[in-house]
Design a protein that fits this description.
- This protein is an all-alpha fold.
- It folds into 2 domains: 89 residues, Cell wall hydrolase SleB, domain 1 (Arc Repressor Mutant, subunit A); 69 residues, Orthogonal Bundle (Muramoyl-pentapeptide Carboxypeptidase, domain 1), CATH 1.10.101.
- 53% of the residues lie in helices and 0% in strands.
- The longest helix is centred in the first third of the chain and has 31 residues.
- The radius of gyration is 20 Å and the shape is elongated.
Length: 205
């Protein structure tokens, strides 16, 4: 009976992890930018978002002014090179998605929330009320943070792989959690030295 409950727990965790993996890519991109393709000469709030995120991770050192000039162009090309993207100095879908994932905490790096006016300073900014936390069901023994960590690890290790490949990565994490030779926490398993390629790349990048 105990083994049966353990199997159900693992299956529930896998299902929740895969749901996070499935929607996290779309959600992260939707929060970061509009659908506008950014290139030299572009202006506006999306360029402010681009500059602030590039600056947040050390690629851009210029003024965050919402004007896509040469400084922004070369910063973007360097980012594309470092992250294995097509090097064209144009912020399209893939580049903006990768930048959003690389800078999850850079939303207010330029000093404020997004506004409808397209400027980063001056005037009174309209502040939006914080969204209420969404209710989530997590399997017993796993916190919301545990599930998010596993989802990120699965995405980093198996993005582009079929569903079975992604499930296999999640299963490895859960199996290690139950093994006496590995740490007994989700974060301990994921961040164990040399355990996962994506974690190594994130630390060295």
């Amino acid at each position: 009976m105990k083994n049966y409950r353990s199997i159900l727990k693992v299956m529930a965790a896998l299902a929740l992890i895969m749901s996070f993996v499935q929607f996290s890519e779309v959600d992260q991109r939707a929060e970061a930018f509009t659908s506008q393709v950014l290139q030299q000469g572009s202006v506006g709030e999306d360029v402010i978002e681009l500059q602030s995120r590039l600056k947040h991770i050390g690629f851009y050192n210029g003024k965050i002014d919402g004007v896509f000039g040469w400084g922004t162009y070369w910063a973007l090309r360097n980012f594309q090179y470092e992250f294995g993207l097509k090097i064209d100095g144009i912020a399209g879908w893939q580049t903006k998605l990768k930048l959003a994932k690389a800078t999850p905490n850079a939303k207010i790096a330029w000093g404020g929330e997004k506004t409808g006016g397209g400027t980063a300073s001056g005037g009174t900014q309209n502040k939006t009320a914080p969204k209420p936390a969404a209710a989530t069901n997590t399997p017993n023994g796993f916190s919301q943070n545990d599930i998010q960590l596993m989802a990120n690890a699965v995405y980093g290790e198996a993005r582009g792989e079929p569903y079975t490949g992604q499930v296999a990565v999640a299963a490895v994490i859960l199996n290690r959690l139950d093994s006496a030779t590995f740490p007994n926490t989700i974060s301990g398993v994921i961040f164990e030295p040399r355990a996962f390629t994506a974690v190594l790349m994130a630390k060295s990048g």
